[in-house]
Specification:
By secondary structure, the chain is mostly beta strands. It is built from 8 helices and 30 strands. The chain starts with a helix and ends with a strand.
């Protein structure tokens, strides 16, 4: 039997490599982690949904970066290891583990082709991150082995807008507005150090200064505006995880406890399920998504027990203080983490937040059951602005949350869901519910259905579940996703999402409904070429422009946005990659006026074998009437950053990036970007970021030292 399997695996490998051997070898020799086209597209959709251009997405790909340098042995990997990889759904994971259990260890990675629900695209996606070794080396560590598997990395990142912005010019004569200028320099600086001992221990330190913030190393200064430190220990024993300092946590489907980032709607239409990673070290440069304190996870047979505690100071707008100066009430909690103006400094670290909670998980053969509970307590009352759309917002000092989640796999069906409760002080509990199913009907077809119902009064300060509006409250909807693979070179992804909002929202003065239709067809004529067509149509509703009469009732009117895209990526030789993209956008706003725009982009990447550097460049032409029709497009940035700028107006953008190969474990990267506008003489008019000119330039530098 084993000889027969060996022969079959050999034939599969020969057939697989006969067409793609040369191209695969080129990919596997690439030591640097690079985002695939689908990953880039997913980030663009995430940026459009959140409206953020400069979000730190590094935590979304941290696991893949690790497995790029420490490939996962699929014969020794357990269910949690495969989940952590993030490239397989629960149906594929169960099929793989069952295959190994029945037939013994894999003889080759190409044996995956003989397992149900594994196709060529999935195997290609796995290749850079996995390996197959029948005999795993001895896992008992001694001091010599620990030292051998210890790595250290220091990174220094710098960025700056070269043109002078209004916020950094002398204050106007006679002006009494202290917020009319920034208090610091336009430099952005990030410094970080991390020590890793195999996959057991991580110790990290980082400091960050954003543009406009003060940086001072004098006796009165504190240096960086934000500091982060962590100690994280991960073992296979009873103490599975120990986190001290800054850390992140994610459980269930994110209705109760999910402090990090997570993707919602993506170009992978069937990937909507969350896979909670539990406790993780906090390595992001974001200033607001961390927990600060400690947590521990114990593995007691089939039961996993986690407890965590956090105490930190939040930025908040103070609305009332006592005679002695104690803060009694805050109006809003700030989430930008930026302290560049006098008022932002006054709001900094004003609201104590204390969080404690835990999670229980029972893992059986095909089902995982979980329970999460947590309490959040503030040092002052939170009282949002008394406007109609804020009627159900959180008020008070304390919030209790509890939830139950599950994941069940039955043959080719994967059921998942979570139900949650939240209770404010003196109020009745409010609910949030999410239920989904993934059906792998055939290796060439899978579909998913997800239903969610989030009460307008449900609150959780650490929730990040699947949603359209970015919050797990005041939303009901049902999502259908479909993946078709009629041929090995063709992939079709589509979804339709219907959503309703039972209560008012900002700029929406009535309950409304909306929908989102997406379709994409990808064609890979060979391993060097990928072509895809993209269509998306979103219907939403907004209030019309404000009327002169403030007492007039606004009735939201529908608006439709439609995007069309053609993307071509090719690798004509072993040293160059080319990419071309054309995108059209049409949008009718709340008064049915039509706006149309387009974006045309071309980029390349050259990596010569005999030269110690690689060069990346792109040129983009865009013409969109306003910010309502802005287009998000990914561009290659310095290592560790993921740049997704939004394009609005009429102009062009040029980007260049030079990266040196690791020379004695030192890597230097330098990028320069300049954006030209043809439709204006002033950029950012009327804001602190105003530039008196038609172009904006930015330089970014990154130094990475490994030892």
């Amino acid at each position: 039997m084993r000889i027969f399997r060996f022969v079959v695996c050999l034939m599969l490998e020969i057939s697989f490599q006969s067409v793609h051997a040369q191209e695969d070898s080129l990919l596997l020799k690439e030591s640097e982690f690079m985002l695939t086209e689908v990953m880039q597209e997913n980030l663009e959709m995430q940026s459009e949904a959140s409206g953020a251009d400069d979000e730190d997405y590094s935590e979304l790909f941290e696991n893949l970066v690790y497995f790029k340098n420490h490939r996962l042995n699929m014969n020794a990997a357990g269910k949690e290891d495969l989940q952590e990889l993030g490239l397989l759904n629960p149906i594929q994971i169960n099929a793989l583990l069952e295959h190994i259990h029945i037939n013994g260890p894999l003889l080759s990675v190409y044996e995956l082709q003989s397992i149900d629900h594994f196709d060529i695209q999935t195997i290609r996606a796995l290749l850079p991150y996995v390996r197959v070794t029948i005999r795993e080396p001895n896992t008992r560590w001694n001091l010599k082995e620990l030292i051998k598997n210890t790595s250290q990395q220091f990174e220094l990142r710098y960025a700056r807008i070269l043109e002078t912005q209004k916020a950094y010019t002398p204050i106007d004569a006679g002006s009494s507005n202290s917020d009319s200028r920034f208090i610091g320099s336009p430099d952005q600086i990030l410094a970080s150090y991390r020590l890793s001992i195999s996959n057991i221990t991580s110790i990290g330190f980082s400091g960050r200064k954003d543009p406009g913030e003060r940086f001072s190393i004098s006796q009165a200064g504190k240096g960086f505006d934000f500091y982060s430190m962590h100690l994280f220990i991960h073992t296979k024993g009873i103490i599975k995880a120990l986190a001290l300092g800054d850390y992140a946590m994610s459980f269930g489907q994110g209705l109760v406890a999910w402090s990090g980032l997570a993707l919602s709607k993506t170009a992978d239409a069937c990937i909507v399920e969350r896979t909670g990673a539990g406790l993780k070290p906090y390595t992001s440069s974001s200033k607001t998504r961390n927990l600060r304190g400690g947590g521990m996870t114990l593995q007691l047979g089939l039961l996993q027990v986690t407890a965590f505690y956090s105490y930190k100071l939040l930025d908040a707008t103070v609305s009332d203080t006592s005679i002695g100066g104690k803060i009694m009430t805050v109006r809003t909690i700030q989430t930008t983490g930026i302290h560049a103006t006098s008022s932002e400094l006054l709001s900094a670290n004003t609201l104590p937040e204390e969080t404690a909670g835990g999670h229980l998980a029972l893992s059986l053969h095909r089902i995982v059951l979980g329970i999460t509970a947590m309490q959040t307590r503030f040092g002052a009352d939170v009282e949002p602005k008394p406007v109609p759309y804020n009627l159900f917002e959180f008020r008070g000092k304390e919030l209790m949350n509890a939830g139950a989640d599950y994941n069940l796999v039955i043959r080719n069906l994967n059921f998942f869901g979570e139900g949650a409760l939240s209770k404010d002080q003196g109020k009745h509990p409010n609910t949030a519910f999410l239920q989904g199913v993934l059906v792998a009907a055939d290796p060439r077809m899978s579909f998913t259905i997800l239903y969610r119902n989030y009460s307008p009064a449900y609150h959780s300060f650490f929730s990040n579940a699947f949603s359209e509006g970015g919050k797990t409250s005041n939303e009901q909807g049902i999502y259908w996703g479909l993946i078709l693979k009629p041929r090995s070179q063709i992939n079709i992804s589509a979804f339709y999402d219907f959503v309703s909002y039972p209560w008012l929202k900002y700029r929406v003065d009535a309950p409304v409904t909306g929908n989102d239709l997406f379709a994409k067809i990808s064609w890979n004529p060979d391993k060097r070429t990928e072509i895809y067509l993209f269509f998306r149509r979103k219907l939403s509703a907004l209030d019309p422009p404000a009327a002169d009469d403030p007492n007039e009732i606004n009735f939201p009117l529908p608006g439709i946005q439609t995007n069309y895209r053609l993307n071509i990526m090719t690798q004509p030789s072993a040293v160059i990659n080319l990419k071309t993209r054309v995108e059209l956008i049409r949008k009718t706003d709340s008064v049915q006026s039509l706006e149309q725009g387009f974006l045309l982009s071309a980029s390349f990447r050259i990596k010569l074998r005999k030269l110690p550097f690689s060069f990346t460049g792109s040129y983009t032409i865009f013409d969109t009437p306003s910010g309502n029709t802005r287009i998000y497009a990914y561009e290659q940035g310095v290592p560790g950053t993921y740049s997704i700028p939004s394009y609005s107006g009429r102009g062009s953008r040029f980007t260049s990036l030079i990266q040196t190969k690791s020379f004695r474990k030192i890597q230097v990267s330098l990028s320069f970007t300049r954006t030209f506008y043809d439709d204006r003489q002033v950029i950012g008019a009327g804001t602190l970021y105003q530039i008196n000119g038609r172009h904006e330039s930015e330089v970014r530098c990154n130094l990475r030292v490994k030892f």
